[in-house]
Amino acid sequence: MYRECGIRIDGDDQILNYIEANRHLLTGRPQCYQHGDYHVGNMVLTEDNQLSVIDFNRWDYGDPWEEFNRIVWSAAVSPHFATGQLRGYFGGDPPMEFFRLLALYIATNTISSIPWAIPFGDEEIQVMKNQAQDVLAWFDNMNNPVPTWYLEDWHVQSIDGVPYRLKAPWDLSFIGKYGKVFKVFDEQDSGNICFGVQKGEEKYFVKFAGAPTIGYSGPPEEAVKRLKESVPVYRDLAHLNLVRLLEAEEIGGGFALVFEWVDGECMGKQYPESRQRFLQLPKETRLEAFDAILSFHAHAASQGYVAIDFYDGCIMYDLTAKKTVLCDIDLYSRAPYTNNMGRMWGSTRFMSPEEFQLGAVIDEVTNVYLMGATAFALFAESDRTPEKWQLSEKLYEVAAKAVSDARSQRQQSIQQFVDEWNEAREK
Ligand SMILES: Nc1ncnc2c1ncn2[C@@H]1O[C@H](COP(=O)(O)OP(=O)(O)O)[C@@H](O)[C@H]1O
Ligand SMILES: [Mg+2]
Predict the structure, then answer these.
(1) What is the pLDDT of residues 338-367, one digit of tens each?
(2) pTM for the whole thing?
């Protein structure tokens, strides 16, 4: 029917070849009653969170695993839901045989839905063509039967009703001793998982290393080691504009730091709503925030430290206290520091050329670049052309000088940057 219908999908060869090469998998499969159109669009949640299934009018008989062929609709809405559906059915990861059959059922469904869509008009044909492209992408042009939306390393737990994800189960119930959890940060690439907790009137921020977190690919022991080594850094660099470290201890098979909670907007790109509110703060407020950032980094330099991995996710603004608070200085190190990684930790928008060069010296002049990059992040959304700059031309020149690729062309200390910045501000 597809070959005769006159409409073609790009990449249909791969789909048709997959069907030919795998149709033998159908031999001997069990048969049972099927709903026939089982996906999120036919599920209804009641007010008391009961899940009901509707629309049984496409029922028929077939392989129980074929029932998953409409999971494409669920996966497009939520990979987590689709992954959970498979894991729930199989009690863990599905066998490879299932994925090969699923790809076969999805491939046949994709091909046959093209002629099916024709009577419904162009719009429906386009929907089906788009879905075919999704299918090719999910199965790497039918070369890998495990779809890309299937989240292999993924496990959900919850504490005080707040869900969070890990790669594998890990007992984090000890977090309860610090207070009742109201927020979780589980996506960082640091290997840490963080919790906002409340005890009585007080709120705290607990950072834990040791658990298998989803955003981190290294060994948890290294995350633990880094977190332990960060304790003296927070103590040495204590500052009005730095989160306050209250406690540090070995616990729960890893290591935990407890900080004062900051009720604020974080500028990090990973929190789009909060970032938006931060960037909409009046220019004067953002200038004050930048002063605080400069003051903290001048302090760090005077204590013999270099900033590593500082970016917008470290910048918070407390609207009530009208105060800028910086966090996540875990990797700040004593100068002189040598780049021993190649591409170091950090967000590209904030990193100097030497942070990409194995063996390069990372020092205060590197941090001058960082201050320039931060100015562009605050006052030009990281666009370094003069057109996007929201402050005066003089201030632009100071920031642009700081982000020179050549180290000798930058200001040679944070203090020099501060002096030039303040002088330009007065003009
Ligand atoms: N003391 C705090 N109070 C409230 N939120 C915080 C605090 N410290 C950090 N955060 C928020 O939590 C996020 C993750 O914390 P961070 O220190 O960056 O953890 P990691 O070491 O895992 O990168 C930060 O981007 C910031 O938004
Ligand atoms: Mg971080």
Answers:
(1) 999 999 999 999 999 999 999 999 999 999
(2) 0.78
Q: Is domain 155-260 in CATH 3.10.350.10, yes or no?
A: no
Residue pLDDT, tens place only, 265-281: 999 999 999 999 999 99
Euclidean distance between CA atoms 172 and 174, whole angstroms: 5
- Give Cα separations from 268 to 295, 296, 315, 319, 326 (angstroms): 20, 18, 7, 16, 12
Does residue 102 have its Cβ closer than 6 Å to ligand 1? no
Element (H, E) at 325: strand 323-326
Question: Based on the number of CB atoms within 10 Å of its own CB, is 178 exposed (0-12), middle (13-18) or buried (19 or more)?
Answer: buried
Q: What is the second-level CATH architecture of the domain 12-138?
A: Alpha-Beta Complex (3.90)
| HSE, side-chain direction, 13 A CA sphere, residue 93 | 12
Ligand 2 is an ion; its neighbours by CB within 5 Å are: 188, 328
CA distance 191 to 20: 44
Ligand 1 touching residue 315 (CB < 6 A): no
Burial 179-201 (b: 16+ CB within 10 A, else e): bbbeebbbebebbbbbbbbbeee
SS3 104: helix
